[in-house]
Amino acid sequence: MTINWQAEAEKYQDDLLKDLFGLLKINSERDVEHKTADAPLGPGPADALKAMLALGDRDGFKTLNVDNVAGRIEYGDGDEIFGLFGHMDVVPAGPGWTTDPYDPVIKDGKLYARGSSDDKGPSIAAYYALRLIKDLKLPVNKKIHFIIGTDEESEWVGINRYLEVEPAPDFGFSPDAEFPIINGEKGIATFKVVFKPIAAKPASLTLRSFDAGIRVNMVPQDATAVIEGTLTADLKDALASFGPANGVQVETEDTPNGLKITLTGKGAHAQEPKAGVNAATYLATLLAPFEFDPAGQRYLSAIANLMHDDSRGHKLGINYTDKVMGDLTASADMLTFSQDGEQSIAINVRYPQGTDADAIRDQIETAVGADDADVVIPGHAQTPHYVAGDDPLVKTLMAVYEKQTGNKGHEQVIGGGTYGRIIERGVAFGAQMPDQENVMHQANEYMPVADIIKAVAIYAEAISELAK
After folding, report:
1. Closest to 347 in 3D by CA, of 323, 325, 322, 365
2. What is the CATH classification number for the domain harbouring 242?
3. 263 near 222, Cβ under 8 Å?
4. Are residues 325 and 432 in the same domain?
5. If we measure between CA atoms, which residue out of 440, 442, 435 comes closest to residue 415?
6. Domain with 108 in it: what CATH number?
7. Mind telling me the catalytic residues?
8. Residue among 222, 117, 133 at smallest CA distance from 444
9. Domain, as residue range, for 265
10. What is the pTM of this model?
11. Residue 1 pLDDT > 80, yes or no?
12. Do 363 and 418 share a domain, yes or no?
């Protein structure tokens, strides 16, 4: 039978938005400080997972909860498993919102909330696509496992636990990126530069503290430094002129022995640092020309000289370009300095095939100076992932996208990391439209309601084609 996928998707809009609002109201930021035996990643991620699985129970699907860190909504039967991969966790809301990030609101057709585009909005679109197929009783000759994680924005605890105890799908896609398709993802690793102790000596200025960043996959929007000592006329002039000259905001506050300086830039997803304005590197660049204590001078100079305004890692010597996967990107995203405590910089790197994490680590240590700092890789490095354009999965998804939108499909490689990479034949597919502003990980994140419904239509036809 001929199905008007868009018309069928539109029938679900009211129900979809009601369910999505419920999910968006749950603050599902990773919160291990308040973890419990029943909520290993904190109460929010567990609550969001249970809320999502409850939708499946309500609508007659078979569901599975894996330790409150991952889950599955299941439909159909067959020898192969077709996988959908979404996540209920979100990055921290951060500053700069004009609305409450956990009180969703629709303005001018756009749904504003943390998680609206990454990834609760796209996940609910994929869920309603599956519900549409079930309600229409369309033929399904494969097991469809909609797998839901709760730690995609951090350490992938949920999805890794799921794969320890449940079978991996044979092929599938994650609704956690953009159309027309993402069939390649760069490797991802964080490199932590930890500075070694250095002998003190008198200086005009002392850097007491420097702090920026809330997650290693987010370009820091704000950075703060506390300095003590002689505030020269040149420094005062620089504090007054730097903001207007560089398109950032600089605010100062007197302290008993000096000054607290706060610089505001623009947050962004670390997959493309050029989309943001890194407050940390701008603040270091503002302060580095002045005479600071040895530890402070070393710290500020390393940031200003090796990391500022260089999203491709040229100054660190780690730049690399692959003809298929594109440029390596580098972003200093978590920065901590205190005179008597930790002095570190966490650099998030997205790297193409042709280089590797060990080589990048060695070069960063060489650039910073092995005598001055150690460079370590916290956690594990994710290697580059690519599914060829002639794979039937890729060809089918692109054909559906072209049919539904009238736009020509093409392969894409991104610096972001999705659950699509956890299986050999896994890709990311939507839900952001090609001409849509990417606001993932930014303040005032939103997704157009029309795009969510269009994604339902695209996903429903794609699932039907791949699972029949």
Report:
1. 365
2. 3.30.70.360
3. yes
4. no
5. 440
6. 3.40.630.10
7. 89, 152
8. 117
9. 188-376
10. 0.85
11. no
12. no
